[in-house]
Every structure is written in structure tokens, then in C-alpha cells.
Amino acid sequence: MFRIRRISTRFALLLGLAAVVPLVAYGAISILSLQRGTRQSIVAGNQNVATRAAEEIRRYVATDAEILKALAADLQNTGLTDQQKDQILKNYVIEFREFREVTLFAEDGTPIVTSRVGKPRVAIPRNAAVTIDGVAMSPIRVDDDLLPTAAFAVHLRHLNQPSGWLAGEISLEEMWRMVDQIRIGQHGYAMVLGPGGELVAHGDPDKKSLVAQARNLASHPLVAAPRTAGQPLSVEYTDAEGRQNVAVAARIDSLGWTVIVEQPTREAFASASQLTRQLVVAISVALLGMIAVGYLFGRSFINPILTLQRGTHALAAGALDTRVAIRSRDEFGALGDAFNTMAARLKELQEDVKRQERAAMFGRVAAGLVHDLLHPIQNVGNSTRLLLREDVDADTRADCGRIIDRELGIIRRFLDDLRNVVKPKPVERFAMDINGAVAEIFESMRPEGERHGVTVVATYAGEPLTIEGDRFALGRVFRNLITNAIQATEPGGSVTIQTGRNGDRVEIRVADTGSGIAPERLSAIFDDFVTTKRRGLGLGLAITKRIVEQLDGTIAVESELGRGTAFTVQFPARDHRTARAAAS
Fold first, then answer.
1. Which pLDDT score is estimated for 375?
2. C or N terminus of the chain, fewer CB within 10 Å?
3. For residue 501, how many other CB atoms are within 10 A of its CB?
4. Domain boundary among 423, 445, 476
């Protein structure tokens, strides 16, 4: 049933897929194109913001450098007195608010004049890594007011000879304001990194303290990424807080700085994600709808097959009166009519087979009865006629009496076998020693083997073998096995009886050197009315197996044509002292 139901499921899926696969493919391509286009658009927009910010910062810093350079041009080669120079410096500081201090140094670094009241604070950046059109610039630092400052210096020359330095401390607070004004969405910010990755400015208010801590971000993916001239830098990465970001960078080559604009990926791709979800929902609803329609249609299409399957199972279970009702007028209806016709025909054939089996069984039973009873009855009849003769002596009369008793015993055992087939006798369980039980049967059966020219040999285990069994029932089991072995063995052969222990079970093995049993007949050898001999009803081994199983034992057979047959009987061993004492 499960497999048939899967046919309807597959049929529904097939219909759904046939209708929805193009839609799914189109949706997948649309989603991919949307995501790619959205990313390119966001990266391009953020890159434009970063490039413009980098240009504004470059221009801002360059302007401060140009102002200082212009002041240097006013001071050198003019013949001004130190007092005049001092006044010019103070005027510049008042006019240009970015200048915190401007100091004129001699070539050896001795202060000459300064705009600051008192000792100058600015230092000459002699080994500055950044030079803007001849103006040296120191790394940015945070002053006592937690504002960014940098030292700029111009090397003065008189008649092409070094004549001193003009140095100024310039506040870059305006640059911070520029960075603070850059917003991308709700949570996108910009930051500026120095040449070595040191954080110069950050637009996120929660991260401005990192600037004061001189945090180095050289490990940032955009700082560590290889650079290609003319190619914008962009990357998606996970920050230390576990947040996914999309970041772009723009270089300020004249300063060696990098402007980075970051935005959370979730926010950047929010519109694309929303549209993607809508597409996925629409495609899923369409797919489920088509599958539901296909499933309902498939069930109506598969129902006749399910009906036929149920009818077939019922027939296989023996219910030959089963009929199917398929109302359709198509091929399924014709198939249902053919099934009903087949079932009716099978019913007729079964009745014919039953009649033939009864006739065959009756003939077989009758033949077995005639064969097994004819000889004993003839012997009884002959012996009775001899007893009726007056000229028979006493010895002959005694022999006739023994023959009659023997043959009547054979007839009685034969009738007991027939009765056991219908209603097996219950067995009684007592502790018994297998060695002793087998020895009794062996002694009684050895003369039978000698009459057939067969040597009967017994080998017993060296230890007591105790089981719970019925001595008389087991005697019948061993007698049947030994009798069959003797009858299956040609004169000159041998029958071996062996007892032993196999783990927690007692084992009795009866083997002969007879003709063996064909492999195809071994599986049915313990069935009722099955025999490998030309005569008999075939009840001996069937009754033997019933008795063994009633005593919780097992019986197995091994045989090879031309080599002989071996029956192995096993029973659970009873090793406790009480059982052994009772058996002894």
C-alpha cells in the first residue's frame, strides 16, 4: 500500500514540478539578478560616498597646508623684523581658526617668534612620513581636549640655503565633522585610517573613544586586501561584534589615508531581502497549490489501482470470494472486470484442486493402510489358522501366540500414530539421564540391526546428561530415528548413536551410512504423510518432531546422497543437583 501511495505522490509532484519548475527557475534567476544588482548598486553608491569624502578630506588638509605654505612665503626673503613676524603669526592664528599655534624656528630648531603666549608647544616634524606639496605633516594625535591635531612644517630657504622652519599646530576638528556627517542608512558610518592603519576619525559616536585609544585597524579586511590601481575596494565581512557588514574604501594617496564606509549587510540588502522573501513565498504558494491539485487528481487516478491492489492482497490471503467494484468505463473498468473473472475462475480451480487433493490423500492413506496393515493381519490370520489345526504341537502354538502378540502390537502402534496425527498425546516431564534412556533403546534395537546386516554402535558422554523429558515419548523418538537409519542402510553399513554436550544443551546424534536424502526433499521431511521410503504413511518423523518440540528441544537433519544421513536432537540441559538426583 505504501508503494502505491507513493505513485500518487510522485504523480502529484510531477504535475507540480512540470508547472512550477519554469517559475522556480525564473524566480531563482530573478533573485540572483536582484541580489547581484542590489549589491553592485549599494557598493557603487557607498563607493561614491567614500570617494567624495576622501576628496573633501584631501582638499581640507591640503588647504591647511597651502595656508601654512603661503604664510611661509610671506615671512621668508622679506626683511621683516622679528616683531613684525610675531605680529603676522598672531594675525594668522586669529584669522584661521584651525591654527592653534604657529612658530618660526631657526635652522637649529631654536624658536624665533611664536603666536603662542609663552613657550611654543609645536614640534618640527623633521621625519614626517607625509608631505603635501612640500609641507611636512606629522601623524594625527588627540590633544587634551580630545580633539584631533597635527603638526605641519615648511622648510624655509634664503638664497637657496636652509634658513629655518615654519611649523604650525592645526586642529582637524572640521575633518571629524565631515566624517560625522556621513550617514549610510540608519547604521552606516565612515571612518578614516592613517598610513599604518591607525584610526584617525570615526563617524559612529559609540566608537569615537577608539580614536583616543589610538586603536590600530591594520587587520581590517580592506586595509589588508591587495590594492589594484583604479579599482574600488569592497568587501563583506563579520566584525568583532559578530555583525555582517558591507564595506568600501577610497584611498587618499597624497596622505596615505584610507576612507572606509561601512553599513550592516542586513540594512544594506533589506529591500532586496524583502523582495526575495516575497518571491519565495509566491513561488512556494504556487508550488504547494499545484502539488495539492496534482495530488487530488493523482488520487482519483490511482484509486482504481489501489482497489485492485487490495483485491489482489485479499486473493493472496485466500479470500477467493473477493470482488472489486470499479465504475469507470475506461481501461481500469475493463481491468476490474478481468480481475473479477479471474477471481471467479480461481474459486473454481481451488474447488477442483481440493477435490483432487482429497482423492489423492485418500488414495495415499488407503494405500498406506493396506500396506502397513496387510502384512500384520496376514500374519495374524495365518497364525490363527495354525492354532485351529489339531495337529499343531505346543511349541508351534506358542510361536503362533508370540507372532499374534507381536503383530497386534505393530497394529496398535500404527493406530496410535494415526491418532497422534489428529490429537498429539501430552507428555510428562521428569528428570532423566539421556545416556541411560539411549542405552535402553540401543540394546533393544541392536538385534534389529543384526537381522538387516547393519552394525549399530553407541557412544556415550563421559558425564551425566540430565534433561526434563518423558522416558516413553523419548523412547519412541529414538526408536523411530534408529529404525529409519537401519532401514535406510544397506547390509554391511553402520548406524552410530552418540550422546554429548553442546554448550548448555544435551545433544543426541543418530547417523547412518545409507543412501542419503535428496536436498530438495530435506525441507519437507518432517511434514505429515511425507516419506522417503517406498512404503508407509510418512508419520514417524512428523510425530518425532512434535514430541521433541513438546519437550523444548530441536531436531535437525543433514544428508548427502550416497554418503548417509544424520539426525541431531538437542534438549536444554538441567545441571542442578535436584535434577541429577532425580534422574539417578
1. 64
2. N
3. 14
4. 423
Q: Please check whether residues 458 and 511 belong to one and the same domain.
A: yes
* Under 8 Å between Cβ of 420 and 546: yes
Three-state SS letters, 459-483: ECCCCCCEEEECHHHHHHHHHHHHH
| 467: Cα within 13 Å, side-chain hemisphere | 28
In a shared domain, residues 419 and 434 = no
What's the number of domains the chain is made of? 4
Same domain, 161 and 53: yes
Instruction: Check whether residue 133 and residue 28 sit in a common domain.
Output: yes
Given a contact cutoff of 8 angstroms between Cβ atoms, the answer to whether 507 and 568 are in contact is yes
Name the β-bridge partners of 572: 505
Specify the DSSP element, H or E, that contains 65: helix 2-75
Q: Which amino acid is at 525?
A: I
Q: Is 378 exposed, middle or buried (0-12, 13-18, 19+ CB in 10 A)?
A: exposed
Q: Which residue has the higher pLDDT, 277 or 105?
A: 105
Domain check: are 537 and 526 in the same one?
yes
Q: What is the pLDDT of residues 391-444, one digit of tens each?
A: 778 888 788 888 888 778 767 766 776 666 556 666 678 888 888 888 888 887
Query: Running DSSP on this structure, what letter comes out for residue 198?
Result: B
Residue 500 is part of which domain span? 426-583
468 bridge partner residues: 431
C-alpha–C-alpha distance, residues 3 and 232, integer Å: 59
In a domain? residue 8: no
Assess whether 509 and 569 both reside in one domain: yes
166 and 125 Cβ atoms separated by less than 8 Å: no
pLDDT band at 528, cuts 50/70/90?
Answer: low
- Are 481 and 544 contacting, i.e. CB atoms less than 8 angstroms apart? yes
